[in-house]
Design a protein that fits this description.
This is Proline hydroxylase. By secondary structure, the chain is α+β, with helices and mostly antiparallel strands. Helix content is 28%, strand content 32%.
């Protein structure tokens, strides 16, 4: 594993202690039933402000994307460079094993051969062997009128099927509008929309592409997309933790 992608053991241990305090069987049940689950108060208000405050500091990022130029919506985001900020890198490593257990169970139900290794370091080794070496965690910024079109974050042949978004701003105080939305398309049915209420520091774990649903004839796949509705006032920051690296 590249030295720049390693996360200090003490940082990971602190993040694992934080992550272990949640009811993961209940969160897995939410993911199974709805394709998303809220992890309440994952970050403190001070941690949220610290991460959001990184946005104008160029040295932390590898690229700056204006959504309108690519048809992604309206707004902007920046991809972090390695090494990631300690808090983000630690959470990325600590969240991965919990979500990998869900991902492996889903793949088994959908008859997908891929199984994800037990640690994030081992999964990144697989990504890098496949030529996917660029970090994908990102920091997003929205101002009034901005929105994010429904999409799927797939950056290469190896794409982890779940990701986590953490709201860094306080709804009703820092901004209005800007709701996180998830759509689910089932075969021969109209799409279902899930609007996820979040407070500052809350995270939502969600399916990136497909998830299994139990039908009368066994499991079948549904297709999911996620996005953010139009911001009506203020400024909204979110950090996205994507577990695979990109080409």
């Amino acid at each position: 594993m590249n030295a720049h992608t390693k996360v200090a053991a003490s940082v990971v241990e602190a993040a694992e202690t934080r992550i272990a305090g949640y009811d993961w069987p209940a969160l897995a049940t939410e993911l199974d039933g709805f394709g998303c689950a809220v992890i309440e108060k994952l970050l403190s208000p001070e941690e949220c402000r610290q991460i959001a405050g990184l946005y104008p500091q160029e040295q932390h990022f590898r690229s700056h994307i204006h959504m309108a130029r690519h048809g992604f919506g309206k707004g902007e985001y920046r991809y972090f460079r390695y090494p990631l900020p300690d808090l983000i890198g630690g959470l990325r490593s600590a969240l991965y094993p919990r979500l990998a257990a869900v991902a492996n169970r889903w793949n088994e139900r959908m008859a997908i051969a891929m199984r994800y290794p037990a640690t994030h370091a081992a999964f990144l080794d697989q990504c890098h062997s496949a030529g996917q070496t660029r970090p994908t965690p990102l920091l997003l910024q929205y101002v009034p009128g901005d929105f994010n079109c429904l999409h799927q974050d797939l950056y290469g042949d190896l794409a982890f099927p779940l990701q986590v978004a953490i709201l860094l701003s306080e709804p009703g105080q820092d901004f209005t509008g800007g709701e996180f939305a998830l759509t689910e398309q089932r075969p021969r049915m109209q799409s279902r929309v899930e609007v996820v209420p979040l407070r500052q520091g809350d995270a939502v774990a969600f399916a990136v592409h497909n998830r299994p649903v139990q039908g009368t004839r066994g499991n079948y796949r549904v297709n999911l997309r996620h996005g953010v509705s139009r911001l009506r006032s203020g400024m909204r920051h979110t950090v996205g933790i994507i577990f695979h690296d990109a080409k």
